[in-house]
Write a structure and sequence with these properties.
Blueprint lengths: L1 H11 L13 H17 L3 H6 E4 L3 E7 L2 E2 L8 E4 L5 E7 L3 E11 L5 E12 L2 H6 L4 H17 L4 H6 L1 H15 L5 E12 L2 H43 L1 H18 L10 H21 L1
Antiparallel strand pairs: 1-4, 2-3, 2-5, 6-7, 7-8
Helix pairs in contact: 5-7, 8-9
Amino acid sequence: MIFLRTASVTGLLPSHFPGINSKQLGVCGWILFFLSFLLMIITFPISIWMCLKIIKEYERAVVFRLGRIQAGKAKGPGLILVLPCIDVFVKVDLRTFTCNIPPQEILTRDSVTTQVDGVVYYRIYSAVSAVANVNDVHKATFLLAQTTLRNVLGTQTLSQILTGREEIAHNIQTLLDDATELWGIWVARVEIKDVRIPVQLQRSMAAEAEATREARARVLAAEGEMNASKSMRSASMVLSESPIALQLRYLQTLTTIATEKNSTIIFPLPINILEGIGGVNYNNHQKVSNRS
């Protein structure tokens, strides 16, 4: 992926960009080149310690010969030869860097002031572009990450920021990657670390969430009562169709009560019996009054 990106960037850059011009050294340049080479041979072996440079595995060296980038590409890793007086080289670290974005004051789309911070992971894939096309690639990436974070979050509401962090981070990564492509930077990952909300707004959100949960609990309790009443209605219909089922249920209830509370025994008295007793007493009273 890195090699394909390098090739595409080189093809998209204009010819006037630094590091793309492929002109030769010229006559004076070649004369200075031979003089420098001759000086290195004359001062050998002392000069060899000054001309040989070691480039580590994760580094690349961009060599400027008489102000021009040599061979149009970076050198390394390993030993490289730097000619005295005419060669200058710059080391570029190709490892992944972390860019901590400090808390940014952001006014969201729904007019809420928040503080958001994040972190950006990036690496240099083209040492020539990083050295020749921008003065300080790390500072430029840091400032661009700050402005991009503010611009992207300014178009979102507070709820979208709180619930869609991954999508927002992906959008920021895409914008940063497109902007830093000419600098030889590949943005690997963007993360939003913290979203700080004012205390008063936190209390309002907590009260809103509590009210929503309470309303939901009441709805669930009402649904439970309705389902329970339907079940009891079905049970009453079953018991009315089979009188023996009521007796079995009575025995089961006695067993449960006897297990939990041994000193309490309940004998249910059907309402029909009470109505029958009341009817008998009322009839007897009418007969006595008639006789008198």
